[in-house]
Structure to design on (73 residues):
């Protein structure tokens, strides 16, 4: 499950169907991807990050990995 993506989607008052439309995929396919049952394609990941004006890692990496990455010199 992509928790940060779900939070962003809801904050922007977007439905899974809206997201599927933006990505030009079937709503069921989008739902499976958001739920972690299928993988997003790279182009979808980049489009989502651009859409929400966020870095890819802020949306798709778990928080514990993001924190660890910031501590690396």
């Amino acid at each position: 499950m992509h928790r940060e993506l779900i939070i962003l989607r809801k904050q922007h008052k977007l439905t899974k169907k809206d997201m599927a439309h933006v990505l030009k995929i079937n709503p069921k396919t989008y739902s499976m991807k958001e739920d972690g049952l299928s993988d997003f394609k790279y182009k979808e990941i980049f489009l989502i990050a651009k859409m929400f004006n966020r870095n890819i890692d802020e949306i798709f990496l778990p928080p514990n990995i993001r924190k660890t990455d910031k501590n690396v010199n």
